[in-house]
Amino acid sequence: MATLVSFHAHPDDECIACGGVMRKAFEQGHRVVLVVATRGEHGEVAEGFLADGESLSQRRVAETQASAAILGVARLEFLGYTDSGMMGRPTNDTPGSFWTTPVDEAAQKLAAILQEERADALTCYDDNGGYGHPDHIQVHRVGMRAAQLAGTPRVYQNTMNRDHLRRGMAAFAEQAAAAGIDMPDVGADEQFGKPEQEITAGVDVSPYLDRKRQAMRAHASQISEHSFFLALPEEGFSHAFGTEWFIREGQGPGITETDLLAGL
What we know:
This protein is of the alpha/beta class. The model has no long low-confidence stretch (mean pLDDT 93). The protein has a 7-stranded mixed beta sheet with strand order 3-2-1-4-5-7-6, sandwiched between helices. Helix content is 39%, strand content 16%. The chain has a single domain (3-247), classed as Rossmann fold (3-Layer(aba) Sandwich), CATH 3.40.50. Helix 2 links the parallel strand 2 (31-38) and strand 3 (75-81). It has helices at residues 13-27, 56-71, 103-117, 134-150, 162-179, 209-218, 228-231, 234-241, and strands at 3-8, 31-38, 75-81, 121-125, 154-159, 201-204, 243-247.
């Protein structure tokens, strides 16, 4: 049995980015640990959604616990930093925000978990955090440093396959428009994900898509039934989320791995 630690910025990131590989690892008999840097305090929530006296962070922690159970997570930890908000907002510089935290400080916390768990593999994000969110960029920096400190042998930088997504947007544009689904525009945005040629691992998670979608639904404060994530028809959802993509230093060129825990 191997141990996979998956490190994320906010509640709901885990199921969108790595829900498939976590559930796959669980079903293959491995130990899955989820670490979340913040409680997502600055997420948007519909008026009246929260109960009287309930904070958004409380709700999002509960949602993450529910998602983790669906994905087969054996241990869930929050590092305790504050959500930094989108890039350029004043919340970036709030004391205690993840973005302002010294990398080594946060990396020591994560490394302690990696060492306790004797982690065989860690997932974090690519160097731009997938799309430029400050907390996601910090997950990359902290994750890479923590793996160095702990001696974790495999580090996979989760990313989005920009070319694959563009092909999907073109293929399903008419269906989405007919269904009134607001599709994200990846267009010419060169900060969105990574080009296919830079990606070294592609994991087919299609057998676990039902669980992945259930985990998304657990985050009801952030992911509504009318969102792109849940409103897509099965074929479109499978194209968008049926493969999870990673970069591992020293691998490639091209896809050289299809299972993060192969051989362990």
